[in-house]
């Protein structure tokens, strides 16, 4: 435990929804909900305006629509979110070499390691400067918590929301935590919270009063002892800059339950290929293949198979997933499928044990004249896209040959409605409707949320050095984005192109 509040926790405010509001002037100050728009979609993020109606993250989208029918419902744009996240993480990296990202919009920072702050005054100044710089570079707001431990810094950032800063002085931990719910502590989820409630413990003070022995009896040695330390305000976990990935996985929820065994098998193969793409992008291979199946009655089955060595071969992963599926009864219907790889390694071991059965070929030297007889694989030209089948996802970026950049408000019955506006516009843009196969309308990349320094109106608020650095990073790039994302995200899930409600 530190004697000064030099651990900083940053949490961007309603990140996905706030980024959408910043890029769409017509949605500013109005309820916005981002997530899967299909019948079984869930809410990823809700703006603070939508939260007033009771909309929350992880809520079924159908329930959110009932609570807030007039909100704008949008499909996530992960390309934009990753770009903004990279800008924020770069600012955090200027504070310290020890930055521990938890997600796209959340991270811990060790201010002492960067020589930025060693006491309360310096830590507060660093936190306020960070908030100003984030606003100048991204146009978004973030909440900052400062404390002597990671647990308390995270609690402080929650107390600071939205768009604030809270500093917890070391020595005040017990007094601060005592009246709070046990759910505020790391490791206390709904199940553990209910177990403690039945034992008569609802606040952190109740945990301290019960003592370590009682918590160990209720929760086990490891969890009980750890929870008691947290309840007394003790948390000595360091900020770790590099966090090793434990697994890579992908999953899809289907709008309608799948009953056809062939279709289910094809979906598992497709998920296995996507999983391998992510695995390779992360520079890993893995030994354990995991299949997840959620059936019609919401029962979830997980099956796994451990290979003899790590692999990133799509054929190996596909075949292992198919073998696992053979052991699962899907006759009642399947609503969700997932494929994952765990037991990760930083290298790929040769497939010495013929894990990809049937794919090994014995190569023999060609004889005279055999070159002409050898088969030559011809690359098949991709089939031309049918313009009438183009999907226009609500909230995604488009560009029209005449009207310029805009975003999809909704689509259906052969029509797509577009609002033409840019992030830097002062007023909402005009709305036009086109045929889905209009040749003048095309998908586009997201525009930068904030104009680079040097553009018109570049003398805005914020740190001048930060803005100059961002302008230099953006110079010479063809894309309007300030920095390129590391990977392009896939579109929304099935049904995600449903029209949104007009705000």
What can you tell me about this protein's structure?
The protein is an alpha+beta fold and 503 residues long. It has helices at 15-23, 48-51, 61-67, 78-95, 120-138, 150-160, 173-177, 190-198, 204-210, 212-219, 221-231, 261-281, 314-326, 370-373, 464-474, and strands at 7-12, 32-35, 43-46, 72-74, 99-103, 106-110, 142-147, 165-167, 247-258, 285-295, 300-311, 334-345, 397-400, 404-412, 415-420, 430-435, 441-443. The strands form 4 sheets. A 5-stranded mixed sheet has the order 5-6-1-7-8. The radius of gyration is 26 Å and the shape is globular. The chain starts with 6 loop residues before the first strand and ends in a 29-residue tail after the last helix.
Observed structural traits:
503 residues; alpha+beta; 5-stranded mixed sheet; 5-stranded antiparallel sheet; 15 helices; 17 strands; globular; disordered C terminus
Which SSEs are present, and which pair or pack?
Layout: E1 7-12, H1 15-23, E2 32-35, E3 43-46, H2 48-51, H3 61-67, E4 72-74, H4 78-95, E5 99-103, E6 106-110, H5 120-138, E7 142-147, H6 150-160, E8 165-167, H7 173-177, H8 190-198, H9 204-210, H10 212-219, H11 221-231, E9 247-258, H12 261-281, E10 285-295, E11 300-311, H13 314-326, E12 334-345, H14 370-373, E13 397-400, E14 404-412, E15 415-420, E16 430-435, E17 441-443, H15 464-474
Parallel strand pairs: 2-4, 7-8
Antiparallel strand pairs: 1-6, 1-7, 2-3, 5-6, 9-12, 10-11, 10-12, 13-14, 13-17, 14-15, 15-16
Helix pairs in contact: 4-5, 10-11, 12-13
């Amino acid at each position: 435990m530190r004697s000064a509040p030099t651990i900083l926790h940053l949490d961007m405010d309603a990140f996905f929804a706030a980024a959408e509001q910043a890029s769409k002037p017509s949605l500013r100050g109005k309820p916005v909900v981002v997530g899967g728009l299909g019948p079984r979609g869930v809410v990823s993020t809700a703006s603070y305006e939508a939260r007033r109606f009771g909309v929350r993250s992880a809520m079924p989208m159908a329930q959110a629509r009932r609570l807030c029918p007039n909100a704008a419902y949008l499909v996530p744009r992960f390309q934009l979110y990753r770009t903004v996240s990279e800008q924020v993480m770069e600012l955090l990296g200027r504070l310290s070499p020890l930055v521990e990202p938890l997600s796209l919009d959340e991270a811990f920072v060790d201010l002492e390691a960067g020589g930025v702050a060693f006491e309360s005054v310096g830590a507060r100044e660093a936190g306020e400067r960070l908030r100003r710089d984030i606003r100048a570079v991204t146009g978004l707001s973030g909440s900052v918590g400062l404390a002597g431990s990671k647990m308390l810094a995270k609690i402080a950032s929650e107390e600071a929301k939205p768009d604030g800063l809270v500093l917890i002085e070391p020595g005040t931990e017990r007094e601060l935590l005592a009246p709070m719910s046990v759910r505020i502590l790391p490791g206390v989820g709904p199940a553990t919270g209910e177990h403690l409630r039945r034992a008569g413990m609802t606040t952190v003070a109740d945990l301290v009063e019960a003592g370590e022995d009682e918590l160990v009896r209720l929760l086990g040695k490891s969890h009980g002892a750890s929870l008691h330390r947290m309840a007394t305000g003790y948390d000595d976990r360091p900020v770790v800059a590099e966090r090793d990935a434990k697994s890579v996985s992908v999953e899809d929820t289907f709008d309608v339950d799948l009953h056809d065994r062939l279709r289910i098998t094809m979906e598992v193969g497709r998920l296995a290929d996507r999983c391998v793409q992510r695995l390779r992008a992360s520079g890993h291979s893995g030994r354990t293949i995991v299949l997840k199946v959620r059936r019609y009655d919401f029962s979830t089955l997980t099956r796994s198979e451990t290979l003899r060595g790590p692999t990133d071969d799509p054929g190996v992963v596909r075949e292992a997933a198919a073998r696992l599926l053979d052991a699962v009864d899907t006759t009642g219907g399947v609503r969700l499928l997932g494929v994952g790889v765990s037991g990760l390694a930083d290298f790929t071991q040769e497939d010495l044990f013929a894990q990809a059965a049937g794919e090994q070929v014995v190569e023999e030297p060609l004889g005279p004249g055999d070159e002409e007889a050898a088969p030559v694989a011809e690359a098949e030209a991709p089939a031309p896209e049918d313009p009438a089948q183009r999907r226009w996802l609500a909230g995604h970026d488009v560009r029209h040959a005449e009207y310029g950049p805009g975003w999809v408000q909704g689509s259906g019955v052969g029509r797509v409605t577009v609002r033409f506006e840019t992030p830097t516009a002062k007023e909402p843009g005009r709305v036009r409707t086109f045929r889905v196969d209009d040749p003048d309308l095309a998908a586009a990349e997201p525009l930068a949320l904030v104009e680079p320094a040097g553009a018109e109106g570049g003398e805005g608020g914020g740190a001048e050095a930060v803005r100059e650095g961002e302008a230099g990073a953006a110079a010479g790039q063809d894309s309007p984005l300030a920095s390129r994302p590391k990977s392009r995200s896939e579109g929304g899930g099935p049904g995600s192109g449903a029209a949104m409600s007009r705000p």
